[in-house]
Amino acid sequence: MLENYFPVLLFILVGSGVGLAAITLGNLVAPNHPDSEKLSPYECGFEAFEDARMKFDVRYYLVAILFILFDLETAFFFPWAVSLRDLGLYGYLTMVVFVVEFLVGFWYIWKKGALDWE
Asked: 76: how many CB neighbours lie within 10 A of its CB?
């Protein structure tokens, strides 16, 4: 019965070996010269190596979440456009409702000032 699990064990061992080899090779080959520019804040707006209990601006995370939300919603446009002929009038009207909801949501967050950085 154990011979049935040999392919699984082999898959785990090979996968782990490839992963460890890639990490080891990356550590050996990649240059490691941290300077002030590399250690400076990047996109998050606060120092990377400070007290974890400090106050920070939430606007960055709000804009990031809104970006992900609207990016995922726009990802629905491509499959809809590809299959529009097969969907017919019902699919078209359903997507019109989706686009109207999308635009109302975008207008709402714009008017609330959620997209303003200042």
From this structure: 13
Task: Give the integer Cα–Cα distance in Å for 99 and 81.
Answer: 13
pTM above 0.70, yes or no: no
Q: What pLDDT digit, counting tens, does each position of 62-97 carry?
A: 778 888 888 888 888 888 888 888 988 998 999 899
| Structural domain boundaries in the chain | 55-118
Q: Which amino acid is at 53?
A: R
Q: Identify each DSSP E strand in 14-58 by its residue range.
A: none
Q: Do residues 109 and 115 make contact, with C-beta atoms less than 8 angstroms apart?
A: yes
Question: What does the DSSP 8-state code read for residue 75?
Answer: T
Q: How far from 41 is each of 37, 45, 63, 72, 82, CA to CA, in Å? A: 9, 6, 17, 27, 42
Superfamily of domain 55-118: NADH:ubiquinone/plastoquinone oxidoreductase, chain 3 (1.20.58.1610)
Q: Residue 84: CB partners within 8 Å, gap ≥ 6?
A: 91, 92, 95
